Amino acid sequence: MYKLVKPLFFQMNPENAHHNVTAGLKFFTKLWGAKSILKSLYTLEDPRLETKVFGLTFKNPVGLAAGFDKNADYIEEMAKLGFGFIEIGTVTPKPQPGNDKPRMFRLIQDEALINRMGFNNQGADVAAGRLKHLKDKNGVIIGGNIGKNKVTPNEDAVLDYIYCFKALFDYVDYFVVNVSSPNTPGLRDLQEKEPLKHILNTLQQLNLEKEAPKPILLKIAPDLTDSQLDDIVEIVMDTKIAGVIATNTTISREGLYSDPNLVKETGGVSGKPLTKRSTEVIKYLADKSNRAFPIIGVGGIHSAEDALEKLRAGASLVQVYTGFIYEGPALVANILKGILKDKG
């Protein structure tokens, strides 16, 4: 079905296509019998897929990465497409429009996207309100990906992460600290050892004051050097956060075949060009740490084999975004079938 409508969507501006698809899905799910149709087409349920990671039980290990549902608008709808978990955001304390449009570009020959969205979202309080009134999660785990506002100087960034943490705490199952997007000026500087430890230690202190602390994860860039990845391992161990998400989008343009005018657009690249590097980062972290903490693998997953490579490299869970756009909603079930086949 998706293959029939994909050419139509790909004629649209990518951001407009996203809004049209999600709005259409929301409308469709309100029709009688629609949810059952989606479930029969796109979900795969099997107790062998259940995965326990950082104290949470996931009905399956395939999630929707942050960026797709920035404001917790579509959790009920996306849950019907077979995901085991959905990560909202990136959420910032105050609403912000993000960068000027156009800010998303398809690299069709590379099966990739470039985006420089800039954390466009309606703010942490709006997201919290939607989550509070959520009717049917369909058994999915919900993650909250949090970041800082563009206007917040880096020396005050920790205050933004604290605000988001407090606003979302009662409504999400885990948190992700995003300091790795290339689209907020200076944000990646927070991946340096000292500022990062300050943010994570502060959040952990708040977390441990809670009766039931939530897992906190760190999302990192694929462009880190081995030395920087060594620091990440040390920071995770020192701060005792729950794990790492590897990886965000890349600023590299190496090996791209699409229109040079598109390739030179600023922003982060996602999709197939990221497949190999994100898996390399997962393996490096897993090997270096002796698998001391869980890793969620994301970046260039367009098939079951892509997902299995990340799981074999050391990931406990995987997430999709760009592959979901190129391959369609059947990708989730296809990955789950591949995982079951691999289990034997």
Automatic annotation (TrEMBL):
<dbReference type="InterPro" id="IPR005720">
    <property type="entry name" value="Dihydroorotate_DH_cat"/>
</dbReference>
<feature type="binding site">
    <location>
        <position position="271"/>
    </location>
    <ligand>
        <name>FMN</name>
    </ligand>
</feature>
<feature type="binding site">
    <location>
        <position position="300"/>
    </location>
    <ligand>
        <name>FMN</name>
    </ligand>
</feature>
<keyword id="KW-0285">Flavoprotein</keyword>
<keyword id="KW-0472">Membrane</keyword>
<feature type="binding site">
    <location>
        <position position="178"/>
    </location>
    <ligand>
        <name>FMN</name>
    </ligand>
</feature>
<dbReference type="GO" id="GO:0005886">
    <property type="term" value="C:plasma membrane"/>
</dbReference>
<feature type="binding site">
    <location>
        <position position="219"/>
    </location>
    <ligand>
        <name>FMN</name>
    </ligand>
</feature>
<feature type="binding site">
    <location>
        <position position="247"/>
    </location>
    <ligand>
        <name>FMN</name>
    </ligand>
</feature>
<dbReference type="GO" id="GO:0006207">
    <property type="term" value="P:'de novo' pyrimidine nucleobase biosynthetic process"/>
</dbReference>
<comment type="pathway">
    <text>Pyrimidine metabolism; UMP biosynthesis via de novo pathway; orotate from (S)-dihydroorotate (quinone route): step 1/1.</text>
</comment>
<feature type="binding site">
    <location>
        <position position="178"/>
    </location>
    <ligand>
        <name>substrate</name>
    </ligand>
</feature>
<feature type="binding site">
    <location>
        <begin position="321"/>
        <end position="322"/>
    </location>
    <ligand>
        <name>FMN</name>
    </ligand>
</feature>
<protein>
    <recommendedName>
        <fullName>Dihydroorotate dehydrogenase (quinone)</fullName>
        <ecNumber>1.3.5.2</ecNumber>
    </recommendedName>
</protein>
<comment type="function">
    <text>Catalyzes the conversion of dihydroorotate to orotate with quinone as electron acceptor.</text>
</comment>
<keyword id="KW-0665">Pyrimidine biosynthesis</keyword>
<feature type="binding site">
    <location>
        <position position="183"/>
    </location>
    <ligand>
        <name>substrate</name>
    </ligand>
</feature>
<dbReference type="GO" id="GO:0044205">
    <property type="term" value="P:'de novo' UMP biosynthetic process"/>
</dbReference>
<dbReference type="Pfam" id="PF01180">
    <property type="entry name" value="DHO_dh"/>
</dbReference>
<feature type="binding site">
    <location>
        <begin position="248"/>
        <end position="249"/>
    </location>
    <ligand>
        <name>substrate</name>
    </ligand>
</feature>
<feature type="active site" description="Nucleophile">
    <location>
        <position position="181"/>
    </location>
</feature>
<dbReference type="InterPro" id="IPR005719">
    <property type="entry name" value="Dihydroorotate_DH_2"/>
</dbReference>
<dbReference type="GO" id="GO:0106430">
    <property type="term" value="F:dihydroorotate dehydrogenase (quinone) activity"/>
</dbReference>
<dbReference type="InterPro" id="IPR050074">
    <property type="entry name" value="DHO_dehydrogenase"/>
</dbReference>
<dbReference type="GO" id="GO:0005737">
    <property type="term" value="C:cytoplasm"/>
</dbReference>
<feature type="binding site">
    <location>
        <position position="70"/>
    </location>
    <ligand>
        <name>substrate</name>
    </ligand>
</feature>
<feature type="binding site">
    <location>
        <position position="90"/>
    </location>
    <ligand>
        <name>FMN</name>
    </ligand>
</feature>
<keyword id="KW-1003">Cell membrane</keyword>
<feature type="domain" description="Dihydroorotate dehydrogenase catalytic">
    <location>
        <begin position="49"/>
        <end position="340"/>
    </location>
</feature>
<comment type="similarity">
    <text>Belongs to the dihydroorotate dehydrogenase family. Type 2 subfamily.</text>
</comment>
<comment type="subunit">
    <text>Monomer.</text>
</comment>
<dbReference type="InterPro" id="IPR012135">
    <property type="entry name" value="Dihydroorotate_DH_1_2"/>
</dbReference>
<feature type="binding site">
    <location>
        <begin position="115"/>
        <end position="119"/>
    </location>
    <ligand>
        <name>substrate</name>
    </ligand>
</feature>
<keyword id="KW-0288">FMN</keyword>
<dbReference type="InterPro" id="IPR001295">
    <property type="entry name" value="Dihydroorotate_DH_CS"/>
</dbReference>
<feature type="binding site">
    <location>
        <begin position="66"/>
        <end position="70"/>
    </location>
    <ligand>
        <name>FMN</name>
    </ligand>
</feature>
<dbReference type="InterPro" id="IPR013785">
    <property type="entry name" value="Aldolase_TIM"/>
</dbReference>
<feature type="binding site">
    <location>
        <position position="145"/>
    </location>
    <ligand>
        <name>FMN</name>
    </ligand>
</feature>
<keyword id="KW-0560">Oxidoreductase</keyword>
